[in-house]
Amino acid sequence: MSHERAPYIPAAGHDLLLPLYDPVLRLLMRERVFRTRFLEQADIHSGHRVLDLGCGTGTMAVLIRQQRPESVVVGVDGDPRALERARRKAAQASLPIQFDQAFADRLPYPDRSFDRVVSSLVFHHLTHDDKLAALREILRVLKPGGWFHLADFGPPVGRYATLLVQLTNPNERLRENLGGKLRQLCSDAGFTSVQDRGHHNTLFGTLTLLAASAAS
Questions:
Q1: pTM of the model
Q2: Of 64, 80, 87, 216, which residue is 20 to 30 A from 192 by alpha carbon distance?
Q3: Domain 15-213 in this protein, CATH class
Q4: pLDDT, tens digit, for every residue of 104-132?
């Protein structure tokens, strides 16, 4: 059943803020630390096809290709301006990465196309229905036994993160994440084993790390 997609929100929240997106993540989210940890958890092997869903400006896709040079990496995002930056990053690093423009609930790939799908800092932008639709699409494009790895805002861990939530007024999309609903959404979409892989605290709040497998 199709659903009406909510208005699209660019990675930086507004196109005018896009030039600040990478510097802010580097400085305020200990980005290199969490992305390196995220990559290690994805357990990408030689020959794996990897989809970076909501790739934004391409930071994660480039890191995967640098650290796992024998993998095939594809990045997909709905923001054409972010994709322009992603393509420039890959070209500057001389890395062959395919970047496509599409939305998470309508991926332009055949069934069972990828061994891994990774997504970071995307799902808090999506409504409940869009999250569920995206997860079903991820499951569709994963090969049997493949894994989906997710890094996004989740339940606060520690006094600072808890206070931050109390002092702000998160919108409905973010409240679902903060309430720990991502794991159940993965199960509702049809993933089998859904695992908590820890958390990463930032100045913007706590990121939760999840892994979910497609049935073999």
A1: 0.89
A2: 64
A3: alpha beta
A4: 999 999 999 999 999 999 999 999 999 99
